[in-house]
């Protein structure tokens, strides 16, 4: 089991699966994916009876993690972010549809939540920055690898992991740690320096995302640090966690 979300107006809860702790606790091994030791299903539960009523099987190699319904009081559909694939799966009441990460999907026009919105892109570090350990051979969206991120004079190690959006939708916060053993494997600098929290300003009128250059929470400077920050929450929730009961 990994994540879950619920839609009480339709008497359902959906949950995802990651892997047993013995699989992921010592780091990521691609052979474990081939062996089927990582999850690949979404489970639909009867909210009142606490019973599984439907199982949605993802495509090979996709590990469904964070899952949410649309921000709509009557929604019967939502999104699930999938590890290893850099995409988001769109789930409906009776099916799952592959959706490239954060892009509109014209082939699902009747149910698409993004029928005419542009796509915005922002890099907060990551493994494909220029001078890093990964060399990008071809990218249809980028002319070159992005530059390393520097905020308030600090080069940011790691990449974005968990996010939280303010109630007015104008401030998006991101932390940079996933799981300590995986951080050590993919971003060793993160273990030495600790993680950070960054702020992205969202233009809710004209559209667009922009990093706030004056906001930085450096968990590497904690008294018992360096610390690795993962989940973040607003008191009472953010604008994506309202369940509309």
TrEMBL record:
Named in its record, the pathway it takes part in is:
Organosulfur degradation
What membrane topology was assigned to this protein in its record?
A: Peripheral membrane protein
Entry keyword Metal-binding: no
Domain of life of the organism in this record? Eukaryota
| Reaction(s) catalysed (UniProt annotation) | methanethiol + O2 + H2O = hydrogen sulfide + formaldehyde + H2O2 + H(+)
A Gene Ontology CC term for this entry?
membrane
Single GO term (MF):
methanethiol oxidase activity
Q: Which UniProt keywords are given for this protein, alphabetically ordered?
A: Acetylation, Cytoplasm, Membrane, Nucleus, Oxidoreductase, Protein transport, Selenium, Transport
Q: Which InterPro entries would you find in this protein's record?
A: Se-bd (IPR008826)
Q: What is its EC number?
A: 1.8.3.4
One annotated GO biological process = protein transport
Give the UniProt subcellular location, in the record's own words. Nucleus; Cytoplasm, Cytosol; Membrane
Name the protein family.
Belongs to the selenium-binding protein family.
Q: What does this protein do?
A: Catalyzes the oxidation of methanethiol, an organosulfur compound known to be produced in substantial amounts by gut bacteria. Selenium-binding protein which may be involved in the sensing of reactive xenobiotics in the cytoplasm. May be involved in intra-Golgi protein transport.
| Description of how the protein assembles with itself and partners | Interacts with USP33.
Q: What is this protein called?
A: Methanethiol oxidase
């Amino acid at each position: 089991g990994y994540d879950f979300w619920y839609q009480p107006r339709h008497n359902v809860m959906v949950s995802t699966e990651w892997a047993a702790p013995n699989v992921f606790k010592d780091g990521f091994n691609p052979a474990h994916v081939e062996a089927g030791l990582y999850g690949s299903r979404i489970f639909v539960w009867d909210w009142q009876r606490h019973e599984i009523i439907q199982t949605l099987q993802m495509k090979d190699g996709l590990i469904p993690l964070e899952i949410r319904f649309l921000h709509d009081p009557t929604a019967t559909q939502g999104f699930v972010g999938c590890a290893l694939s850099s995409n988001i799966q769109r789930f409906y009441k009776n099916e799952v549809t592959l959706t490239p990460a954060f892009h509109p999907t014209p082939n699902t026009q009747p149910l698409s939540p993004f029928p005419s919105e542009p796509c915005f892109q922002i890099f907060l570090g990551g493994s494909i920055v220029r001078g890093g350990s990964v060399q990008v051979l071809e990218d249809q969206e980028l002319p070159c690898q992005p530059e390393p991120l520097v905020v308030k004079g600090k080069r940011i190690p790691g990449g974005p992991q968990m996010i939280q959006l303010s109630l007015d939708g104008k401030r998006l916060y991101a932390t940079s740690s996933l799981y300590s053993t995986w951080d050590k494997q993919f971003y060793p600098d993160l273990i030495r320096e600790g993680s950070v929290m960054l702020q992205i300003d969202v233009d809710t009128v004209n559209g667009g995302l922009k990093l706030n250059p004056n906001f930085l929470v450096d968990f590497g400077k904690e008294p018992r640090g360096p610390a690795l920050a993962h989940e973040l929450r607003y008191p009472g929730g953010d604008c994506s966690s309202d369940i509309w009961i």
